[in-house]
Amino acid sequence: MSSKLVDFDWPDTQDVRSHRVTLLLAHRENRELLAEWIREETPHIPLVPDEEASFPVAEDGGDVSFGSTDSGTNRFDSDDSDTNLFDSDGDADFPRGDICIIDQRMVARHREWVLAQKRAANREFYPVLLVHSDDERQLKQWLWSLVDEAIAAPIRLPVFERRLNNLLERRRLSVAHAREFRTAEHQYRALFEASNDAIVVFDPIRDVIQESNRRATELLGYSRTQLKQLSPASLFSTDTERYRAFVEATLDTGRGWTDDLVVTRRDGTEIVTEVSVSVIEFDDSPRLVASIRNVTERHSQKLELERRRDELDELHSINRTLRKTTQAVARASCRSELEQKVCEQLANSDRYEFAWIGTADEESGEIVPRTVAGDAPEYLDSVTIRADDTPTGRGPAGTALRKGVVSIVQETQTDPAYEPWRHLATRYGVDAVAGVPIRHDDETYGVLTIYANEPNAFGEKERNVLADLGVTVGHAINALRAHRDAKRFEEAVEHAGHAIYIASGDGTIEYVNSAFEESTGYTREEVVGCHHSVLRTGEDNPSFHTELWESVSTGDTWQDETTGRRKDGRRQHIDQTVAPISTIGDEENYIVAVRMDITDERRRQQQLQTLHRVLRHNIRNELNVIRGYLDIVDEETPEGTAESAMSKIRSSTEELLQTSRQARRIEQTFVRSDDASESPSKQSFSSVVRAHCDLVRTRFSEATVEWSVPECGAAVDAEFGTALNEILTNAVRHNDSAAPTVICEASVENADATVTQAVVSVRDDGPGIPVHERRVLREGEETPLLHGSGLGLWLVNWILTELGGEVCIDDNDPRGTVVTMRLPLYDD
Predict the structure, then answer these.
(1) Mean pLDDT over residues 662-668, rounded?
(2) pTM of the prediction?
(3) Helical pair 296-331 and 460-494, crossing angle rounded to 10 deg
(4) 610 near 791, Cβ under 8 Å?
(5) pLDDT digits (tens, 9 = 90+) for 669-678
(6) CB distance 112 to 91 below 8 Å
(7) Lowest-pLDDT range of 74-88, 188-202, 283-297, 595-609
(8) 700 — alpha (psi -120 to 50), left (phi > 0) or beta?
(9) Which of 224, 232, 254, 812 is most buried, with most CB under 10 Å away?
(10) Strand order in the sheet with 682-684
(11) Beta strands in 493-537 (DSSP E)
C-alpha cells in the first residue's frame, strides 16, 4: 500500500515526515494491525497505550476489525461486542501524540481525557479521528464536540490515509500559526512594556482593569496587582462624569477617542492626562485599551497661552480702536477736526463710553473742554475739573495735565481721588477713568479724558498704549501747526517779488519760487536737483564764491552783486543775498538765496552815462565846430574859405545825425528786448552772417566785403544781426581808404561740454579804433577822463552782453582793426 508523503514542520528531534499517532482502539487485534500498517506504509509512528495498564480484555466479535473485502481492499471491520475495554483509571498514562484515532467505545469511556487534550493544545489544533460502525447521522450530538473527522468501519485504507493526512496537515498549519501568534504576542508584549505612555486594558462591562504596563505603574503609583483590583473610574475620581461620557462615546461609535482627563494618583496628587482609547473585541466581549500620557505641563502651557491669547485679544481690541483713532488723526486737516475725530472714535468704540479733550484756562485754572463726544456734554455740564493740586484737580484729567503722565482711576466708587465726582459716576455708569496728557517734546497741548463702564478697564498695556496715543495726538497737533506755519511761509516766499531758491549744504537746489522761474527761465522741474552753479557765468573772481561759502558757513548773511546766466544764455546782473538756515532734527544745513535782477538798472545806468556823455560832450563839441565855422563865414573870409567851412559844417552835422540814428537803434533794440511778452526770435546763424555781409556790400559799392561762414544747423538770437551790421558798417564808414576792404570770418566752437558758441571776426584796413575807446568798453562805464566818441560800439557791446556773449577788439596786421564776437548757439 502506498501513500503520498507530505513535508511537515515539526521539532528538529522528529522527522519532518513523521507524526505520532495515538491509537485508542478497544480491540487488540485491530489496534495491532493498524499500528503495523502505520509503521510499514507511512512515515508516522504509532503510539499504543500500555496494555496491562490501560486495555481491559475485549469480548470477541465486538471490536472494530481490520480485514479484506471481496474486492481485495484492506479494511477495518467493526463488531459491537467488546473483548477488551479501556479502564478510565488509566487515562493519565495515555500517550498524547499528534493525532488521536479512537473508536466509539473508547470515546464514551475517556471523554474527559479527550477534552483535556483539546484544551491543552491551546491555539494548536489537536485532531481526533473517530472510527465508528454506525451511520454518521445516528451518532450522538455530543461526539461532534470532541471529534474532528469520522470514518466508518470497515475502513477503506485509501480513504483512511487521506483523512489521516488532511488532519495532520491541519495540525501542522495550526502549529505554525500558533508559533507565529506566540512570536507576535511576544513582540507586542515587548512593545506594550516599552511604550513611553501608560497603557491600561480594562473591561468596561465588568468595570475592571485586566492588564497594565510598567509605565502605567510608574505614572499612577500602583503596582499591577493593585491596578487589577481597581475600578477604572476610580482613577478619574475628580473627573468621573467626563470619564463615563468618554467611555460611552467610545463604545457607541466603536472608534478611537482622545480627550484630556484629570487622573488621581495613588498618593492623591492630580495630573492632567491625554487619554486615547481604542475598542477591541476579545471573546466576543469589548475591551478598551487606554493610552495615558501626562500632559500637565502642556496643559499649564495651554492655559497660559489661552490667558495670553485673551490678553492679546483685549490688546488687539485696544489697538483696533486706537488704530482707527490714529488714522483719523492722520486725515485731519486742522487741530479742531483732529481732536473731534479722536473723541468720536473713542466714544464710538465698544470699550469706552465717552471722551473729551480740554486745556487749562490760565486765569481760572479750570480745564475747559475743547472737544467732546458721547455723553460727555451732559456729564461735563455738571462737573468742575481743575488743573491745580486741589480736590477737584486730583482726578485723572487734572493729574495727567499737571504731571504730564497717564493718570487712571480703576474704580470710581472706591478711589478717594474720584470723591468729588462719585455721584455723577453712578448716574452715568462710569466705573473707570483715564486721563492722557497730549504732549510733544516739552510742550503740553491739553488732556484727553476717557470714561469706561467697567472697573479696572485700563490695564498696564492699555496705559502704555494710551500714553503713545497722547504722544501721537501731540505730534499731530505740532505737525499741523508746523504745516500751517510752513504753508504761510511758502505762500509768502511764493508770492515774493524776488527770485528765491533754497539749496542744501552741497549746493543742490531743492526749492525755487515762481519769481525764480520768471527771472531765470528755468522751471522747477528743470532746476530742482541741479547744482546752483548752473546759474553762474564763470565771470566772477575765483575767490568770490569761496568768500561767499566761508561767510555763510559761519552763520553770517552774505550780500553782493554778481552775474548770472538765464536758461536761454542771457547774462544777468544780480544783487544776491545768501543766508544759512537749518531745520529741527536735520543735521544738514541749507542756504536760502534771494536774487534781485538788476540787469535793467545796470544797463540803464550805462545808457544814461553814455547818453549823458554824448549830449554833454560830442554834440556840444560838434556844435562848437559849427559855431566856429559860422563865425569865419561872418568875418568875410577870403574867397573859397566859405566853401571849405560849409563842408566842415555838413560833416559835423552828418556826425550828429549818425549819432542820433545810433541812439534810436539802441532805444529800439532794448525797448523790444524788455517786452517780456515776446520771446526772443531765433534765426539761422549762417543766414544771418551772409545776409548782413551782402547788405553792407550792396550799400557801400566802393568797398570790398568778403565773408566765409560754415553751413550748420545752429541758430542765434535775431538781435545779433544788429550788432554784426553795426560792426560791418563802421568798418567801411570809418575807413580812410578810397577802396575799403572788410573780411568777415565765422566759425563754430565748443565753449564746454554743453555749450556751443559762434565766433565771428570782422577785419578791416582802416585807421583802427583808438585805445581809449576800447578801454571804455572793457571797463564798462564812462568817466569824465575816460569816454568813447560814439554809440556804435556801445550798441554792439550791450547786445552781445545781453545775449550771453562778448566782444573783443584787437589791432589788425599791418593796419586796421579786428573785432571778434562770441555768443551762444541754439539748435535750429
Answers:
(1) 59
(2) 0.41
(3) 20
(4) yes
(5) 555 555 544 5
(6) yes
(7) 74-88
(8) beta
(9) 232
(10) 682-684, 714-717, 826-827
(11) 499-504, 509-512
